[in-house]
Specification:
Layout (H helix, E strand, L loop, with lengths): L12 H6 L3 H12 L3 H10 L7 E7 L5 H14 L4 E7 L7 H10 L8 E7 L7 H14 L4 E7 L3 H8 L3 E6 L4 H9 L7 E4 L7 H13 L12 E3 L8 H15 L3 H29 L4 H10 L5 H14 L3
The protein binds guanosine-5'-triphosphate and magnesium ion.
Amino acid sequence: MTDSATTTTRPPLSERVLQGDPRAVARAISLIEDEAAEGAELVRRIFPSTGRAYLVGVTGAPGTGKSTLVDRLIAEFRGRGRSVGVVAVDPTSPFSGGAILGDRVRMQTHFADAGVFIRSMATRGHLGGLARATGEAALVLDASGKDTVIIETVGVGQDEVDIVRTADISIVMLVPGTGDQVQALKAGIMEIADIFVVNKADREGADRTVASIEAMLSLESFGDGRWRPPIVKTEATAGKGTTELADAIERFRAHMAPVQGERRRARAEWRVRELLAHRFVQHVQERVLGEGEFDRFLDRIAARETDPYTVVDEILRRSIQRPR
Ligand SMILES: Nc1nc2c(ncn2[C@@H]2O[C@H](COP(=O)(O)OP(=O)(O)OP(=O)(O)O)[C@@H](O)[C@H]2O)c(=O)[nH]1
Ligand SMILES: [Mg+2]
Protein backbone atom coordinates (compact mmCIF):
# COMPACT_ATOMS: atom_id res chain seq x y z
CA MET A 1 0.00 0.00 0.00
CA THR A 2 1.34 3.41 -0.87
CA ASP A 3 1.39 6.12 1.69
CA SER A 4 -0.21 9.31 0.44
CA ALA A 5 0.13 11.17 3.73
CA THR A 6 2.28 14.25 3.86
CA THR A 7 5.92 13.37 4.04
CA THR A 8 7.55 13.94 7.36
CA THR A 9 10.87 12.83 8.68
CA ARG A 10 9.16 10.43 11.06
CA PRO A 11 7.54 7.30 9.66
CA PRO A 12 3.75 7.63 9.44
CA LEU A 13 1.66 6.73 12.48
CA SER A 14 0.46 3.48 10.91
CA GLU A 15 4.06 2.36 10.44
CA ARG A 16 4.92 3.16 14.01
CA VAL A 17 1.84 1.27 15.24
CA LEU A 18 2.92 -1.74 13.19
CA GLN A 19 6.36 -1.49 14.76
CA GLY A 20 4.71 -1.71 18.16
CA ASP A 21 5.67 1.78 19.34
CA PRO A 22 3.53 2.30 22.48
CA ARG A 23 3.29 6.06 22.00
CA ALA A 24 2.00 5.57 18.49
CA VAL A 25 -0.51 3.03 19.78
CA ALA A 26 -1.74 5.50 22.39
CA ARG A 27 -2.01 8.25 19.78
CA ALA A 28 -3.84 5.96 17.36
CA ILE A 29 -6.42 4.98 19.96
CA SER A 30 -6.97 8.65 20.81
CA LEU A 31 -7.68 9.42 17.16
CA ILE A 32 -10.22 6.62 17.10
CA GLU A 33 -11.82 7.89 20.29
CA ASP A 34 -12.07 11.38 18.84
CA GLU A 35 -13.70 10.00 15.71
CA ALA A 36 -11.04 11.85 13.77
CA ALA A 37 -10.83 11.28 10.01
CA GLU A 38 -7.21 10.25 10.59
CA GLY A 39 -8.55 7.48 12.81
CA ALA A 40 -10.52 5.97 9.93
CA GLU A 41 -7.52 6.35 7.65
CA LEU A 42 -5.33 4.63 10.20
CA VAL A 43 -7.72 1.68 10.51
CA ARG A 44 -7.63 1.38 6.71
CA ARG A 45 -3.84 1.22 6.71
CA ILE A 46 -3.37 -1.21 9.56
CA PHE A 47 -6.29 -3.51 8.75
CA PRO A 48 -4.32 -5.84 6.43
CA SER A 49 -1.92 -6.47 9.33
CA THR A 50 -4.64 -7.39 11.83
CA GLY A 51 -6.47 -10.63 12.55
CA ARG A 52 -3.59 -12.26 14.36
CA ALA A 53 -4.51 -11.38 17.94
CA TYR A 54 -6.95 -13.43 19.99
CA LEU A 55 -9.65 -11.12 21.33
CA VAL A 56 -10.93 -11.90 24.82
CA GLY A 57 -14.03 -10.02 26.03
CA VAL A 58 -14.61 -9.78 29.78
CA THR A 59 -17.91 -8.36 30.99
CA GLY A 60 -19.84 -8.18 34.26
CA ALA A 61 -21.62 -5.81 36.61
CA PRO A 62 -19.68 -2.94 38.20
CA GLY A 63 -17.29 -4.04 40.91
CA THR A 64 -17.40 -7.77 40.18
CA GLY A 65 -13.60 -7.74 40.01
CA LYS A 66 -13.04 -7.59 36.25
CA SER A 67 -9.96 -5.37 36.41
CA THR A 68 -8.45 -7.42 39.21
CA LEU A 69 -9.00 -10.58 37.23
CA VAL A 70 -7.72 -9.06 33.98
CA ASP A 71 -4.60 -8.07 35.86
CA ARG A 72 -4.15 -11.70 36.90
CA LEU A 73 -4.87 -12.92 33.39
CA ILE A 74 -2.21 -10.60 32.00
CA ALA A 75 0.34 -12.22 34.31
CA GLU A 76 -0.90 -15.68 33.37
CA PHE A 77 -0.65 -14.99 29.62
CA ARG A 78 2.73 -13.33 30.03
CA GLY A 79 3.87 -16.49 31.79
CA ARG A 80 2.72 -18.43 28.73
CA GLY A 81 4.85 -16.24 26.50
CA ARG A 82 2.08 -14.05 25.09
CA SER A 83 2.10 -10.31 24.75
CA VAL A 84 -1.11 -8.68 25.96
CA GLY A 85 -3.10 -5.56 25.12
CA VAL A 86 -6.02 -4.40 27.25
CA VAL A 87 -8.86 -2.03 26.45
CA ALA A 88 -10.83 -1.26 29.61
CA VAL A 89 -14.12 0.47 28.94
CA ASP A 90 -14.90 2.77 31.79
CA PRO A 91 -18.52 2.75 32.92
CA THR A 92 -19.39 6.25 33.91
CA SER A 93 -16.76 8.84 34.13
CA PRO A 94 -15.33 10.99 31.38
CA PHE A 95 -11.75 10.43 30.47
CA SER A 96 -10.12 11.59 33.67
CA GLY A 97 -12.55 9.75 35.95
CA GLY A 98 -11.89 7.81 39.09
CA ALA A 99 -12.55 4.31 37.85
CA ILE A 100 -9.91 4.74 35.18
CA LEU A 101 -7.45 5.76 37.79
CA GLY A 102 -8.49 2.67 39.70
CA ASP A 103 -7.79 0.49 36.69
CA ARG A 104 -4.42 2.13 36.26
CA VAL A 105 -3.48 1.56 39.85
CA ARG A 106 -4.65 -2.02 39.81
CA MET A 107 -2.91 -2.87 36.60
CA GLN A 108 0.22 -0.86 37.17
CA THR A 109 2.20 -3.96 38.06
CA HIS A 110 2.59 -4.38 34.30
CA PHE A 111 3.55 -0.83 33.44
CA ALA A 112 7.22 -1.57 33.08
CA ASP A 113 6.54 -4.55 30.84
CA ALA A 114 6.88 -3.78 27.11
CA GLY A 115 4.80 -6.88 26.35
CA VAL A 116 1.75 -5.27 27.93
CA PHE A 117 -0.27 -2.25 26.83
CA ILE A 118 -3.27 -1.07 28.85
CA ARG A 119 -5.70 1.59 27.81
CA SER A 120 -8.96 2.85 29.29
CA MET A 121 -11.70 4.24 27.11
CA ALA A 122 -14.57 6.45 28.17
CA THR A 123 -18.08 5.25 27.43
CA ARG A 124 -19.40 8.67 26.61
CA GLY A 125 -18.92 10.78 23.55
CA HIS A 126 -18.81 8.05 20.96
CA LEU A 127 -21.21 9.34 18.38
CA GLY A 128 -20.42 6.48 16.12
CA GLY A 129 -20.86 3.82 18.78
CA LEU A 130 -18.79 2.62 21.63
CA ALA A 131 -18.58 -0.89 20.27
CA ARG A 132 -16.92 0.32 17.10
CA ALA A 133 -14.44 2.50 18.96
CA THR A 134 -13.57 -0.41 21.21
CA GLY A 135 -13.28 -2.79 18.28
CA GLU A 136 -10.99 -0.40 16.48
CA ALA A 137 -8.82 0.11 19.56
CA ALA A 138 -8.49 -3.67 19.67
CA LEU A 139 -7.45 -3.61 16.00
CA VAL A 140 -4.70 -1.13 16.85
CA LEU A 141 -3.39 -3.40 19.61
CA ASP A 142 -3.63 -6.35 17.25
CA ALA A 143 -1.67 -4.47 14.57
CA SER A 144 0.94 -3.46 17.13
CA GLY A 145 1.70 -7.14 17.61
CA LYS A 146 -0.12 -8.05 20.81
CA ASP A 147 -0.98 -11.76 20.73
CA THR A 148 -3.88 -11.47 23.12
CA VAL A 149 -6.17 -8.47 23.41
CA ILE A 150 -8.49 -8.29 26.41
CA ILE A 151 -11.53 -6.02 26.31
CA GLU A 152 -12.98 -5.26 29.74
CA THR A 153 -16.47 -3.83 29.70
CA VAL A 154 -19.07 -3.16 32.36
CA GLY A 155 -22.67 -4.18 32.51
CA VAL A 156 -25.24 -6.01 30.50
CA GLY A 157 -26.61 -3.47 28.04
CA GLN A 158 -26.67 -3.55 24.25
CA ASP A 159 -23.32 -1.76 24.09
CA GLU A 160 -21.72 -4.58 26.02
CA VAL A 161 -23.37 -7.25 23.92
CA ASP A 162 -22.04 -5.47 20.84
CA ILE A 163 -18.57 -5.06 22.31
CA VAL A 164 -18.37 -8.66 23.32
CA ARG A 165 -19.64 -9.68 19.91
CA THR A 166 -16.48 -8.23 18.44
CA ALA A 167 -14.35 -10.60 20.57
CA ASP A 168 -13.29 -14.17 19.82
CA ILE A 169 -14.38 -15.33 23.26
CA SER A 170 -16.79 -13.81 25.76
CA ILE A 171 -16.28 -14.20 29.47
CA VAL A 172 -19.19 -13.23 31.72
CA MET A 173 -18.35 -12.53 35.35
CA LEU A 174 -20.67 -12.88 38.31
CA VAL A 175 -20.14 -12.75 42.05
CA PRO A 176 -21.78 -14.77 44.83
CA GLY A 177 -25.22 -13.80 46.04
CA THR A 178 -26.39 -12.67 42.66
CA GLY A 179 -29.20 -15.04 41.92
CA ASP A 180 -31.17 -12.06 40.67
CA GLN A 181 -28.29 -11.12 38.49
CA VAL A 182 -28.37 -14.52 36.88
CA GLN A 183 -32.03 -13.93 36.06
CA ALA A 184 -31.36 -10.47 34.73
CA LEU A 185 -28.46 -11.64 32.65
CA LYS A 186 -30.52 -14.33 31.01
CA ALA A 187 -32.09 -11.87 28.65
CA GLY A 188 -28.95 -10.48 27.11
CA ILE A 189 -25.44 -11.36 27.87
CA MET A 190 -25.97 -14.82 29.27
CA GLU A 191 -26.49 -16.26 25.85
CA ILE A 192 -23.25 -14.87 24.51
CA ALA A 193 -21.15 -16.26 27.38
CA ASP A 194 -18.51 -18.75 26.30
CA ILE A 195 -17.14 -19.01 29.83
CA PHE A 196 -18.72 -18.03 33.14
CA VAL A 197 -16.55 -16.80 35.96
CA VAL A 198 -17.83 -16.68 39.51
CA ASN A 199 -15.36 -14.33 41.13
CA LYS A 200 -15.02 -13.52 44.84
CA ALA A 201 -15.26 -17.23 45.48
CA ASP A 202 -13.94 -16.49 48.95
CA ARG A 203 -17.37 -15.13 49.73
CA GLU A 204 -20.36 -16.96 51.02
CA GLY A 205 -22.65 -18.42 48.37
CA ALA A 206 -20.24 -19.00 45.49
CA ASP A 207 -21.43 -22.57 45.06
CA ARG A 208 -25.06 -21.46 44.96
CA THR A 209 -24.25 -19.00 42.19
CA VAL A 210 -22.47 -21.77 40.30
CA ALA A 211 -25.53 -23.98 40.80
CA SER A 212 -27.92 -21.37 39.47
CA ILE A 213 -25.82 -20.92 36.34
CA GLU A 214 -25.71 -24.72 35.98
CA ALA A 215 -29.48 -24.83 36.31
CA MET A 216 -29.87 -22.26 33.60
CA LEU A 217 -27.46 -24.07 31.29
CA SER A 218 -29.21 -27.39 31.85
CA LEU A 219 -32.25 -25.96 30.10
CA GLU A 220 -30.28 -25.74 26.90
CA SER A 221 -29.10 -28.54 24.69
CA PHE A 222 -25.44 -28.78 23.85
CA GLY A 223 -25.54 -31.48 21.22
CA ASP A 224 -23.49 -31.74 18.02
CA GLY A 225 -20.22 -30.69 19.56
CA ARG A 226 -21.70 -27.41 20.72
CA TRP A 227 -19.57 -25.80 23.39
CA ARG A 228 -20.99 -25.99 26.87
CA PRO A 229 -19.79 -22.89 28.74
CA PRO A 230 -17.69 -23.96 31.71
CA ILE A 231 -18.08 -22.17 35.03
CA VAL A 232 -14.77 -21.18 36.61
CA LYS A 233 -14.57 -20.08 40.23
CA THR A 234 -11.95 -17.43 40.87
CA GLU A 235 -10.61 -15.31 43.67
CA ALA A 236 -8.97 -12.57 41.68
CA THR A 237 -7.46 -10.73 44.62
CA ALA A 238 -5.58 -13.88 45.65
CA GLY A 239 -4.90 -14.98 42.09
CA LYS A 240 -6.84 -18.22 42.58
CA GLY A 241 -8.47 -19.81 39.57
CA THR A 242 -6.58 -17.78 36.97
CA THR A 243 -4.70 -20.76 35.60
CA GLU A 244 -7.98 -22.69 35.26
CA LEU A 245 -9.53 -19.72 33.50
CA ALA A 246 -6.62 -19.36 31.08
CA ASP A 247 -6.84 -23.12 30.41
CA ALA A 248 -10.56 -22.80 29.71
CA ILE A 249 -9.84 -19.96 27.28
CA GLU A 250 -7.27 -22.14 25.47
CA ARG A 251 -9.75 -25.03 25.33
CA PHE A 252 -12.41 -22.82 23.82
CA ARG A 253 -9.95 -21.46 21.32
CA ALA A 254 -9.01 -24.97 20.20
CA HIS A 255 -12.66 -26.03 20.12
CA MET A 256 -13.63 -23.08 17.93
CA ALA A 257 -10.60 -23.18 15.65
CA PRO A 258 -12.47 -24.97 12.85
CA VAL A 259 -15.18 -22.28 12.79
CA GLN A 260 -12.97 -19.30 13.56
CA GLY A 261 -13.37 -18.09 9.99
CA GLU A 262 -17.16 -18.05 10.31
CA ARG A 263 -17.01 -16.11 13.54
CA ARG A 264 -14.72 -13.54 12.03
CA ARG A 265 -16.90 -13.28 8.96
CA ALA A 266 -19.93 -12.67 11.18
CA ARG A 267 -17.93 -9.97 12.92
CA ALA A 268 -17.05 -8.44 9.57
CA GLU A 269 -20.70 -8.43 8.59
CA TRP A 270 -21.71 -6.76 11.83
CA ARG A 271 -18.98 -4.14 11.40
CA VAL A 272 -19.86 -3.34 7.83
CA ARG A 273 -23.58 -3.08 8.52
CA GLU A 274 -22.97 -0.90 11.55
CA LEU A 275 -20.53 1.36 9.75
CA LEU A 276 -22.76 1.61 6.70
CA ALA A 277 -25.75 2.65 8.79
CA HIS A 278 -23.67 5.18 10.68
CA ARG A 279 -22.06 6.65 7.58
CA PHE A 280 -25.31 6.75 5.67
CA VAL A 281 -27.09 8.69 8.40
CA GLN A 282 -24.09 11.01 8.60
CA HIS A 283 -24.18 11.51 4.84
CA VAL A 284 -27.90 12.28 4.90
CA GLN A 285 -27.51 14.79 7.68
CA GLU A 286 -24.50 16.52 6.20
CA ARG A 287 -25.23 16.45 2.50
CA VAL A 288 -28.83 15.67 1.78
CA LEU A 289 -30.82 17.57 4.36
CA GLY A 290 -30.74 21.32 4.76
CA GLU A 291 -30.03 23.12 7.99
CA GLY A 292 -32.61 22.17 10.65
CA GLU A 293 -34.57 20.06 8.19
CA PHE A 294 -34.23 16.85 10.16
CA ASP A 295 -35.77 18.54 13.19
CA ARG A 296 -38.60 19.95 11.09
CA PHE A 297 -39.37 16.44 9.83
CA LEU A 298 -39.57 15.27 13.43
CA ASP A 299 -41.90 18.15 14.33
CA ARG A 300 -44.18 17.31 11.43
CA ILE A 301 -44.26 13.62 12.41
CA ALA A 302 -45.06 14.55 16.00
CA ALA A 303 -47.87 16.82 14.76
CA ARG A 304 -49.14 13.95 12.58
CA GLU A 305 -48.73 16.02 9.42
CA THR A 306 -46.64 13.21 8.01
CA ASP A 307 -45.32 9.80 9.09
CA PRO A 308 -41.88 8.18 9.46
CA TYR A 309 -42.22 6.07 6.30
CA THR A 310 -43.02 9.04 4.13
CA VAL A 311 -40.13 10.99 5.60
CA VAL A 312 -37.66 8.15 5.05
CA ASP A 313 -38.91 7.62 1.49
CA GLU A 314 -38.42 11.30 0.82
CA ILE A 315 -34.90 11.28 2.29
CA LEU A 316 -33.97 8.16 0.33
CA ARG A 317 -35.30 9.64 -2.90
CA ARG A 318 -33.22 12.76 -2.42
CA SER A 319 -30.15 10.77 -1.39
CA ILE A 320 -30.26 8.92 -4.65
CA GLN A 321 -30.82 12.07 -6.69
CA ARG A 322 -27.92 13.80 -5.05
CA PRO A 323 -25.11 11.30 -4.81
CA ARG A 324 -21.82 12.31 -3.28
N1 LIG B 1 -13.27 -10.55 48.33
C1 LIG B 1 -12.87 -10.39 47.08
N2 LIG B 1 -12.79 -9.15 46.58
C2 LIG B 1 -12.38 -9.02 45.30
C3 LIG B 1 -12.05 -10.13 44.49
N3 LIG B 1 -11.71 -9.68 43.27
C4 LIG B 1 -11.82 -8.34 43.31
N4 LIG B 1 -12.21 -7.93 44.53
C5 LIG B 1 -12.42 -6.54 44.99
O1 LIG B 1 -13.57 -6.02 44.36
C6 LIG B 1 -13.41 -4.61 44.13
C7 LIG B 1 -13.70 -4.28 42.69
O2 LIG B 1 -12.70 -4.86 41.89
P1 LIG B 1 -12.40 -4.35 40.41
O3 LIG B 1 -11.37 -5.28 39.85
O4 LIG B 1 -12.15 -2.92 40.36
O5 LIG B 1 -13.81 -4.63 39.75
P2 LIG B 1 -14.32 -4.19 38.30
O6 LIG B 1 -15.32 -5.20 37.92
O7 LIG B 1 -13.17 -3.99 37.39
O8 LIG B 1 -15.01 -2.82 38.61
P3 LIG B 1 -15.52 -1.72 37.55
O9 LIG B 1 -14.51 -1.66 36.45
O10 LIG B 1 -15.61 -0.47 38.34
O11 LIG B 1 -16.86 -2.22 37.11
C8 LIG B 1 -12.00 -4.27 44.56
O12 LIG B 1 -12.04 -3.73 45.85
C9 LIG B 1 -11.30 -5.61 44.56
O13 LIG B 1 -10.23 -5.66 45.47
C10 LIG B 1 -12.14 -11.44 45.08
O14 LIG B 1 -11.87 -12.46 44.46
N5 LIG B 1 -12.55 -11.50 46.36
MG1 LIG C 1 -12.68 -2.31 36.12
